[in-house]
Amino acid sequence: MTFRTLMATTVALTFASQALAQDFNDPAEFKKQREQLAMTPQGPEGQPWAQHLGEGMVDTVKYKKDGQVTLCFSNAGVFNPWRVVGLNNLNAEADLHKDRLKELIVVDAEGKDDKQISDIEALVSGGKCDALIVSPNTTAALTPAVEAACDKLPVIVFDRGVNTSCPVTYIHPVGGYGFGITSGEFIAGKLKKGDNVLALRIMPGVDVLETRYSAAKNIFDEAGINVIGSEFTGSDRAKTKSVVEDYINRGVKIDAVWMDAGDTATAALEAFEDAGLPYPVISGEDQQDFLRKWQSDKLTAIGPSYPTYQWRTAVIAALDVLDGKQVPGPEWVLPQPAITQDVLADYVDERMPPLHYSLCGCQDLPGYPERWGGKK
Amino acid sequence: MTTDITRITPRAPRLPVSVLLAGLSLGFYIIIALSTGETAQLSPSGILGLFQRMVALGLVAIGQTFVILVGSIDLSVAALISAVAVLASHVMQGDPTMMLPAIVLCLGLCLMVGLINGALVAYGGINPLIATLGTGLVIQGVLAASFGMLQGAVAREFQVLAYGGLLGVPYSLVLLAALSLAAAFVLDRTLFGARIYAVGGNPDGARLAGIRTEQVILSAHVVASLFAGASGLYLAARLQSGTPWIGRDGIYDLESIAVTVIGGTILAGGKGGVAGTLAGVLLFASLDAGFNMLGIDAFLKQVLRGAIVIAAVAVHAVRTKGHVA
Amino acid sequence: MTTAPQASALPRRPARIALNAGLVIFVVLYAAIAFIQPNYLEPGLFMNFLRRAAPLVILACGQLYVILTGGFDLSMGAVATLVVLAASILINGDPETTWAVIGALYVMGIAVGLVNGLVVAFLKVPSIIATLGAMLSVNGLALAWSGGAARGDLPENFRNLGRLVLRDVPFVGTLPLAVIVLLGFVAIAWWGLNGTVYGKRALVVGDNPRAAELAGTPVAATRILAFVVSAVSAVTAGILLGGFSGVSVNAGEGLELQAIAACVIGGAQLLGGRGSVWSAVFGALSLFALFTLLNLLGLPQALRDSIQGAILIAAVGATVWRGRRRA
Amino acid sequence: MTVEPALAMTGIRKAFPGVRALDAVDFECLPGEVHAICGENGAGKSTLMKILGGSYRPDAGEIRLAGRAVHFTHPRQAAEAGIAIIHQELSLLPHRTVAENIFMGREIAKRGMLDKAAMRDRAAGLLARVGADVDPQTLVSSLSIAVQQLVEIAKALLLDARILVMDEPTAALDERDSRTLLNLVRILRGEGVSIVYISHRMPEVTAIADRITVLKDGRRIWTRRTGEAPVGEIVRAMVGRDLKDFYPAPPSSAPGPVLLAVEEGANAYMRDIAFEVRTGEIVGVAGLEDSGKAALAQALVGDAPLTSGTVFLRGQPLALRTPRQATAAGIGYLPGDRKGEGLALRQSVRDNALLALRAIAGLFTRPEHGRLAPDAIDEKLRAMDVRAADFGQEIGTLSGGNQQKAIIARWLAQESDVLVFVEPTRGIDIAAKAAIYETMRRFADLGRGIVVVSSDMPELIGIADRIVVMHRGRMAGTVPRGAQEEDVMHLALGTSGAPEKEESP
User: CA-CA distance, D418 to D327, in Å (whole number)?
Assistant: First the structure.
């Protein structure tokens, strides 16, 4: 019975499937992001959240509004540490503008597209908002709601995009391919042809993560490096460690570990420690725990980033729009630096909690470091 | 399990759970809106927005009500919702002419899942929690594994279901209302409804009365799956394209059970109805909207919601005589 | 059944059958693992297997207490998450405080268990709903407290509980500390059910609470204690999980359903009245062996869910089928 | 025989694994006849009726209805063929209305749509016919057991059944309600309905039946006209031997000191209760269904405690708020609903017998030691003559009599001084009945006190040293051993001439 269930479901699901898979391996986009990584950003020196890559600017005079304003923010949720740091950034940035800001209304969709659509509708119909910031839970799902909101007020979208050009601007760092290029090239540079790399990923089917992997995979393939496995960890440390242990137990030599997100990087490294093996070359992210371990255990590592400072940019952009200033657009591409051995020491901060994202651009914001859970 | 032979039960006329619960929910919403100055949320569009929050959960919960009434339960609805949403967007690929085939195919899938669930429970004698947890896992797994090949988006025309409306009333609400009324009608006025209450209330008695209890349980599972399918289709229309996680992220399995029980349907079966369930859904929608207006932090919200679920069930469960496990 | 004396001639030993079911499935699955990768037969890897299975086995033992009394505990995963987050925040890298904090964690767990038990026993809320509410609340509490991400660090002595491996131990070679904790917990869980009258009371309460009550059994206390044991197991599992891999906000996600599935695979009956510690232990080991096997087979991650679901149905289906054949 | 039998079952065989339940049984019932089936539990009565009702399929044999052979595979087909079975255990839906219950499974519907008004009307008619004065819209959960039984019969009448099987229909009814029911049976017989009547209550059987068939061990012993079958003959055929001393002899000595006493007891169901049990005494409690007799038992065991008044045990005031306190104080309870309230069916015989001891023992008491040891409890079970292949087997597989004896062993092990029996022999066959009466007497003679609450009047008169009669929540009077049924009934019905001041409790 159950076997039949499985078969039948599979058949039903693949029935009529003309295999028109969504393409996470877009050479044009890959190329574009590779170029963007190499660009020199424009804008104030040392403030990457206010910088942008490329030329385009959009005029916003029609949105100009005097006096105190209310910003509304529809958040997809705070279901991972990245978003926790980001939300703190956003709130702290808002605190910088107390004179201009009457209120910042934040509603949380708890990771549910359906709820976020309702949330946006309620914010728009509530009539309090002068501008709307949206961090969409998924791209396609939020498109109609954002389109409807665009008719009523200026909308700024960041992190994930929407399939419409109606928002004033869409703020995002270089992107997933960029992340994969940075980490992939680093590992490819450290390994020889024929060496093994283990890919640890959070979950399948998520656009921003799939592109990271496809970029890295392209580079590994080009360099003749074996990807011995691509495993999903669900961001779970225990699972990450177990998966790595399983690979170690199989007796295959793992020369490098590539990760599409660094929140469980230290767990992966622990598996090597517990097995009494030397650390592999590893790509993580800009989390404190990883950076500290990198520093103390002298890893061969890189920390590409998907910087959380974009949450600051969203507020800056919204206020600029209400001031009628020009803002980068229709896409505001932020620089996407990576942490390398050379700059590692600048980013390690013992006061901060383990999963604090170092590229938060928040050191100068009010409430640092306590607001981000750090010790004074 | 009460058998005190001499029980004399004085029955004071009480308001039905559904009316009470719906009143409380709306009261909560209105008070919050007034006290936070969000009076715009009390405008017709604000209220419609509140009701719109009910649609997805409401549709699943109606189906869940059927299975709980018959003494079973369905934990596979969340996975099925995802499957339907993914399948609908994949088959349509934005092409309006594929709308009908997609809907038919999706409902066909639901029919099949419902039949399997029902067969495992009614004929296989497998505890429904385990059976449907199992089928849910199977669906979830197949879905996640094959999602790479199942991308797509629904047709623009199909999204009218979620975004269009008639005289300002969204079609989705019309759909929810119509299906609710239909479900209530079925339960209250049809042979099938009477059989559901009979099988849920006393399976042995129902069997001896000549009811083919297995068929009734099976049918209830099919109904639940079809309603989950309706919810999946609605979500596909609203979200444009389905992902394998929308059901799980929406916690539609546990939430649909929670609202059904909050609405006064007893887990043992045989007592309850759609009105109560919808009132439970309204409670959840009001909490969502109210907490937003209050600006309560997402985590605290979760704490409160948990407490409210317990309290809402305790209010009518505490009068239960005998034991509950 | 009309003719009792003859029918009763068939010997019936459900407890032993339950034991065998779980054990047999485990042995078969582990044999399959060893076939694919023979070094799993080495003591070291077997110990490592046990170490990693330890949290699930412990959770299953706790869950079993509740299942025996006829209920469910859906809150245990959330409690485990709370424990990991609370430990990191409270200890905050100071090894001096570890033991005091572990004490505090157990107090927290017991409090959650008490609330679950009281809500079920006195407010008469079905446990599936009561513990669902508790799951939401406890999870929310844990996240609200930590701010949604891991904070603080776990010191070495705390981590060791889940991580330390004693080397050069006679007979087994290596012995992870977690396995000692596991054996200790299973021993206590076994003692609770077989060394005290509690186990039999729990079975009767799960079978027929009314009859139990009329014979003088403290039904409410029996129920509440089951939820407390379940919560204590969640705390223990949480400590091991935190020790094994460190702090994360999703440490306990989904473990409640795995624990229930484990008990069921091992032969415990949902809604009470049947089952033993061995159902939980071998059920959990079987489930974990299954996960390991699927990993080794290198199946797509997602399909592993499917196979787990199918096995769950098959295991229960087999029990039902066996029961029907006997009847 | 000139009349074509409405029902003829010939050569019915049915075997279960290891058991031959029915062995070539013949049975027939004429139109307008009440044909009683007597037999001990396990004799095959229920199996025969389940075959008739379509729940079981026979291995061999033939069923003819009015001469036409039928084969049922589902209860539905039997129902459609005009066979209605009123089961011992009520099969009603507590949360549904009377009308909905009557029409369960046979709703009046057009193209799937219910015709509620029609069902209400017909339900009202049927209820009137069975003499039940209830609104069809009432919820069943608010009805008394007796009225629920009438609803069951109305359900059967709905089908216009030609064959009506009544399995222990009066088991849950008191004397008055039983009489009403028997009258109803006579009326139905007059209408030409064939009635198969199963009962353990001999007086009832001889009063109502036209013919009697006795089954034993799956075989038919004989079928006779009622006039040719004196009770003694029936019992001998059922049991296979003479049961002369059905009730034990009265005690030789007078009862001892007061063991348990209630003064001015009252709660929601009764008031002004002054009740005592002495050592060596069996006190019967009689009364109609809602007289408060069951409430008295529940109060004595702390299940539905008194809200005012005092309970004394051996002269000492006793807190009696929960069953646990009662158990600890040495008061044991044998509920009337054995399966629902007495037994944990999936646990072993031994576990069920150990229930009270384990319940009261300290939590950390080691099981299987001392009084909790298997040997110790096996001894008690053997002393009670509980018949089981293995005391480790599930108690659900035992007969009612053995189950009841195991429960008695439970209290014997707990060394209870007072045993409160409710309907001690409901659904228990004659031989086991005698054994249970015997045990009760022996317990009393050992210095214990016994309270027996029962609706079975001959039973009370046969076993009790004294019968307390309840009426409308009060004690209407006490009758000594040797009283007549009529005396008890007068008190129970409130027609004894005793002044009654208040209209309702």
Answer: 10
Residue D162, beta-bridge partner list: none
- Touch between chain B and chain A: 3 or more Cβ pairs under 8 Å: yes
Give the CA dihedral B69, B72, B78, B81, nearest 10 degrees. -70
User: What string of pLDDT tens digits covers the 325 residues of chain B?
Assistant: 333 333 334 444 567 888 889 999 999 999 999 998 888 888 888 899 899 999 999 999 999 999 999 999 999 999 999 999 999 999 998 888 999 999 999 999 999 999 999 999 999 989 899 899 999 999 998 988 887 777 788 888 888 888 888 888 889 999 999 999 999 999 999 999 999 999 999 898 888 888 899 999 999 999 999 999 999 999 999 988 888 888 988 889 999 999 999 999 998 899 999 999 999 999 999 999 999 899 888 889 889 989 999 998 888 888 777 777 7
- Chains D, C in contact: 3+ Cβ pairs under 8 A? yes
At the fourth CATH level, which superfamily is domain D257-330+417-496? P-loop containing nucleotide triphosphate hydrolases (3.40.50.300)
Asked if residues C274 and C324 have their Cβ atoms less than 8 Å apart, the reply is no
- Chain B interface mutation, best of C123, C219, C324, highest count of B Cβ atoms under 10 Å: C123
| Identity of the residue in B191, B193, B209 whose CB atom sits nearest the CB atom of D91 | B209
Judge whether B214 and B22 are in contact, CB under 8 Å. Answer: no
Instruction: Please state the φ and ψ torsions of residue A66, each to the nearest 5 degrees.
Output: -90, 165
Q: Does C211 reach chain A within 8 Å, measured CB to CB?
A: no
For domain C15-29+38-320, say whether CATH 1.10.8 is its number. Answer: no
B135's tokens: 């089928």
Task: Say if the Cβ atoms of B41 and A13 lie within 8 Å.
Answer: no
pLDDT tens, position by position, B63-90: 999 999 999 999 999 999 999 999 999 9
Highest CATH level, class, for D7-239: alpha beta
Task: Find the CB nearest B3 among D78, D80, D337.
Answer: D337
Query: Please, which residues have CB within 8 angstroms of residue D220's CB and are 6 or more apart in sequence?
Result: D25, D26, D27, D213, D214
CA B224, B229, B230, B233: dihedral to nearest 10 degrees? 170
The answer to whether D and A touch (≥3 CB pairs < 8 Å) is: no
**Chain C neighbours among D 345-384 (CB < 8 Å)?**
345-347, 351, 354-356, 358-367, 372
CATH class entry, domain A38-175+307-337: alpha beta
Residue B246 with chain A: CB contacts under 8 Å: 112-114
- B149: nearest CB among A21, A77, A110: A21
Positions of CATH 3.40.50.300 in chain D: 7-239, 257-330+417-496
Please give the pLDDT value at position D77.
87
Residue A322 · residue A329 · CB < 8 Å = no
- Contact call for D355 and C204, based on CB within 8 A: yes
User: Residue D18: which of C10, C208, C218 has the nearest Cβ?
Assistant: C10
Q: What separation in angstroms does the CA of D345 have from each of C72, D229, D280, D395, D412?
A: 21, 38, 32, 6, 20
Global pTM?
0.88
Q: Chain C contacts of B300, Cβ < 8 Å? A: 140, 144
Q: What is the domain partition of chain B in residue ranges?
A: 55-257+264-271
CATH number of A176-302: 3.40.50.2300
Cβ neighbour number for residue C127 with a 10 Å cutoff: 28
Contact status, residue D489 vs residue D455, Cβ threshold 8 Å: no
Chains contacting C (3+ CB pairs below 8 angstroms): A, B, D
Tell whether B249 is within 8 A of chain C (Cβ): no
What are the residue boundaries of the structural domains of chain C, listed by start? Answer: 15-29+38-320
Tens of pLDDT, residues D163-193? 999 888 877 777 778 888 888 889 889 988 9
